[in-house]
């Protein structure tokens, strides 16, 4: 994985499950990323009483923002495809873990 430069700073992209592998965001920040972009296609877990995917994503992105002192942009798919429902819930977090969205 490599970071890349933009006019807004150095960034890295972690596609969906990449963000669940804790070493990948760490490597990205060590490579100079100031912003982590996480596109996902996440929907509700079949057993919501066991796993709240929205809450997990919020927790993960907030953790990375705080611990890696970086901005995190989480963009999730919205809508329905066949029997799958994608809930959106995109948000942005700052290096203190505060978020919008």
Give me a quick take on this structure.
The protein has 101 residues and is α/β, with parallel strands linked by helices. It has two helices and eight strands. The protein has one domain (4-100): 4-Layer Sandwich (Nitrilase/N-carbamoyl-D-aminoacid amidohydrolase), CATH 3.60.110.
Give the percentage of residues in beta strands: 25-35%
Overall 3D shape: globular
Count up the helices: 2
User: What is the highest CATH level, the class?
Assistant: Alpha Beta
Q: Main sheet?
A: 6 strands, mixed
Number of strands: 8
**CATH topology (fold) name:** Nitrilase/N-carbamoyl-D-aminoacid amidohydrolase
> Which class best fits the helix and strand makeup?
alpha/beta
Residue windows where pLDDT falls under 50 for at least 5 positions: none
Strand order of the largest sheet: 1-2-3-4-7-8
Distance between the termini: 27 Å
Describe this structure in words.
The chain is of the alpha/beta class and 101 residues long. It has one domain: Nitrilase/N-carbamoyl-D-aminoacid amidohydrolase, CATH 3.60.110.10. The chain contains 2 helices and 8 strands. Strands 1-2-3-4-7-8 form a 6-stranded mixed sheet, covered by helices on one side. Strands 5-6 form a two-stranded antiparallel sheet. Helix 2 links the parallel strand 3 and strand 4. It is globular, with a radius of gyration of 14 Å. 20% of the residues are buried. The mean pLDDT is 93.
């Amino acid at each position: 994985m490599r970071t890349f430069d933009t006019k807004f700073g150095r960034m890295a992209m972690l596609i969906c499950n990449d963000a669940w592998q804790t070493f990948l965001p760490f490597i990205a920040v060590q490579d100079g990323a100031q912003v982590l972009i996480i596109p996902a296609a996440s929907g509700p877990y079949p057993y919501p009483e066991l796993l709240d995917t929205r809450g997990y994503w919020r927790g993960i992105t907030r953790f990375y923002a705080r611990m890696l002192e970086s901005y995190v942009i989480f963009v999730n798919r919205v809508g329905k495809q066949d029997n799958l429902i994608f809930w959106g819930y995109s948000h942005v977090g700052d290096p203190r873990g505060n978020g919008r969205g």
